[in-house]
Design a protein that fits this description.
The complex is a heterodimer of chains A (112) and B (114). Chain A is mainly beta. In chain A, 0% of the residues lie in helices and 58% in strands. With 114 residues, chain B is mainly beta.
């Protein structure tokens, strides 16, 4: 059974305090791993797609990395506007294109 | 990125009535759309896969007679919650993919059944 586990469930950081979010996955053949940001009452906003172990992608203060078992979302010098829930999702080979299995997310709060 | 528009953003209805939620792909054609449900502080749970011109595929445990899905065109899928009850209150989100790219999500619909 395909599974996605995110940790921690919640993370509080002071502005400028770097940290990492973890996404562990078990999937029968990975087609892609996705990171999304979700603000309260909104739909998920796409951040990154990673396809193979060793791949890395960056966007502003965020950097996503991928191994064969997990992915990390590194946040460097976060700002209060980075506060949101970060969702990890996987797409399995052989599944309908676009069908995603989500983790529960990490709720990030960055305080000034 | 591609834009997916969902309407309405929120709706309040009386118990026993039906509610329709629309999901449109604005700048691309989506042969497949997905409907998710999200409870507070929980992840997105896939309800069904909506296929243009054919019947939707429902996930195990999702009542297809309660959650009617229609995908009449390449840019529009609708989810109708029939005979809604308070336990159907939730956040419903649709998504669509362009071939070879990531999924794009609508803004979500907050349904409250009173």
């Amino acid at each position: 059974e395909d599974q996605v586990t995110q940790s921690p469930e919640a993370l509080r950081l002071q502005e400028g305090e770097s940290s990492s979010l973890n996404c562990s996955y078990t999937v029968s053949g990975l087609r892609g791993l996705f990171w999304y940001r979700q603000d309260p009452g909104k739909g998920p906003e796409f951040l990154f797609t990673l396809y193979s172990a060793g791949e890395e992608k960056e966007k502003e203060r965020l950097k996503a990395t991928l191994t064969k078992k997990e992915s990390f979302l590194h946040i460097t010098a976060p700002k209060p506007e980075d506060s949101a829930t970060y969702l990890c999702a996987v797409q399995a080979r052989g599944s309908t294109l676009g069908r995603l299995y989500f983790g529960r997310g990490t709720q990030l709060t960055v305080w000034p | 990125g591609a834009v997916v528009s969902q309407h309405p953003s929120w709706v309040i209805c009386k118990s026993g009535t039906s509610v329709k939620i629309e999901c449109r792909s604005l700048d691309f054609q989506a042969t497949t759309m997905f409907w998710y449900r999200q409870f507070p502080k929980q992840s997105l749970m896939l309800m069904a896969t909506s296929n243009e011109g054919s019947k939707a595929t429902y996930e195990q445990g999702v009542e297809k007679d309660k959650f009617l899905i229609n995908h009449a065109s390449l840019t529009l899928s609708t989810l109708t919650v029939t005979s809604a009850h308070p336990e159907d209150s939730s956040f419903y989100i649709c998504s669509a993919s362009v071939v070879g790219t990531e999924a794009f999500f609508g803004q979500g619909t907050r349904l409250t059944v009173v």
